[in-house]
Amino acid sequence: MIMRKNSYKRTIQHVSFGKDPEVTQRVSELSNLCINSIETITPNDLLNVASGPRNRILLFDYEESLDLFKQVLNLPLASKNFETILINVPHRLTTEEILRYGHIKGLFYTHEDASKITYGFGEIINGKNWLPRDVASQLLHHYRYVVSANTSTTVVDLTSREIEILRCLQSGASNLEISEDLYITESTVKSHLYQVFRKLSVKNRLQAIAWANQHLLS
Predict the structure, then answer these.
(1) Helices marked H in the chain — which ranges?
(2) Which superfamily does 11-137 belong to?
């Protein structure tokens, strides 16, 4: 099954350092099945185009992305300029793991056939979601009950540092990684997190990320 021609002229870009030949081969095979080839963009390049036009769909290989997130903090995946696709997922992910990839439009498990994956790519390019039923249900439950129950329509008085902390949470960074990235101590990070949770009326990182995904769109 060949990917249908898109009507929005959007492109899929594989975010990768290109160090894993198995991943490169996998993406190359998918690209060969697509009418529009899949380009490759490094994480550093991605940081430079975060404010560009909204026509990029970012492709992540799940196993590769685990190392990528450790090497590069604060990828702008929550930016309204990007949508994301996740492939080669070996098992069902937690909601927090899914939210790490920003505005996710498609998720494909390891066992899925390449032709089915590329057909899904075409649907995503044409504006649709392509999520397994369990993932769609998971996200629906999250936004219906977690976000609505723990967000406020009033303006939240966050400091610039607290917003930086929230951005780090969105990227999936640990307290240690946040401290290294912002050049502050872990105890200071914990203090900022306490203030952020208090101001947002949330109880944990997952709920804070959900708030950020709803309100820190750019």
Answers:
(1) 21-33, 43-48, 62-71, 95-99, 114-125, 133-141, 148-150, 160-170, 175-182, 186-200, 205-215
(2) Response regulator (3.40.50.2300)
Alpha-carbon Rg for the chain in angstroms:
18
Distance, CA of 191 to CA of 199 (rounded, Å):
13
In 1-36, which positions are buried (b, 16+ CB within 10 angstroms) versus exposed (e)? eebeebeeebebbbbbeeeeeebbebbeebbebbeb
Q: Where are the domains of the chain?
A: 11-137, 151-215
Intrachain domains 11-137 and 151-215 with the same fold:
no
Q: Output the pLDDT for position 2.
A: 46
> For residue range 71-106, what is the model confidence (pLDDT) as tens digits?
887 777 766 678 999 999 999 998 888 988 988 999
Helices and strands, counts by H and E, the chain: 11, 5
Average pLDDT over residues 174-179: 90
CB atoms within 10 A of CB 140: 11
Report the range out of 100-104, 109-113, 144-148, 209-213 with the highest average pLDDT: 109-113
CATH for 151-215?
Answer: 1.10.10.10
Q: What is the pLDDT of residues 1-30, one digit of tens each?
A: 444 443 346 889 999 999 999 999 999 999
Q: How far apart are CA 189 and CA 178, in angstroms?
A: 7
Residue 203: CB atoms within 10 A of its CB come to: 10
**The tokens of 141 are what?**
């439950």
Beta strand 39-41 with 82-89: parallel, antiparallel or unpaired?
A: unpaired
Coil, helix or strand at residue 39: strand
